[in-house]
Amino acid sequence: MDLGIKGRWALVCAASKGLGKGCAKALAAEGVNVVITARGAEALNATAAEIRAASPGVQVIAVPGDIATAEGRAAALAACPQVDILVNNAGGPPPGDFRDWDREAWLKAIEANMLTPIELIKATVDAMAQRSYGRVVNITSGAVKAPIDVLGLSNGARSGLTGFVAGLARQPRLASANVTINNLLPGWFDTDRIRTTMQAAAAKSGQSVEAMIDKRRAGIPAQRMGTADEFGAFCAFLCSTQAGYLTGQNILLDGGAYPGTF
Known about the structure:
By secondary structure, this protein is an alpha/beta fold. The chain contains 9 helices and 7 strands. It has helices at 18-29, 41-54, 70-79, 103-131, 152-168, 172-175, 192-205, 209-218, 228-238; strands spanning 9-13, 33-38, 60-64, 85-88, 134-139, 179-186, 250-253. The chain has a 7-stranded parallel β-sheet, sandwiched between helices. Helix 1 (18-29) links the parallel strand 1 (9-13) and strand 2 (33-38). The radius of gyration is 18 Å and the shape is globular. Belongs to the short-chain dehydrogenases/reductases (SDR) family. It holds the Pfam family adh_short_C2. This is SDR family oxidoreductase.
């Protein structure tokens, strides 16, 4: 299927690894020019080189920086000739007990996982509407649908973003101008972050990492972790011309792990 987005420009955040990288690769494969940003310059430049080799017909611009800062956002936006597609993404805050989190911990989580996406949306959607095309995909978390007790910082910040998007996406001046805003909620995907989290949990429990991974895998009907590439492919479809009637939705990709009907 031709997604109808060849030649457009995308800004993909936290794209040096994991799900963000999967999204950038999938968009570039569809002929989209990409500006990718992440804090680690070495990994980001390696990803840019990988995408250029796989999709030689597109422009790939790497902008090292922290998207959760005003300076990082300004640099990323300045590097993108126009933002037709915005993929919001940021590493989640650490797990823990809410009794141990002070005000600064909460503000840091809200800044990265709620306010930063809102700032980027604010900077781009009106221009998208003027051009009669725009796609915003926010990578949030399956924890928005089924909260995880040790991820309270993430549950709170990402749920705040979800509520904001629910209202904004339905504004007629955006929806009628072919600007869509949707959230992708990943479940358990095989990424460096998940591996690191599992290593910490294994060390605390005394079990091996592989034993803990096997236990988690057994609780997923698909009996496996998702891959960044298949996540990216779904993101690319949400950015397509064919997805213009889909907006304000929370789409859970979790291999069937969430047990609810709704």
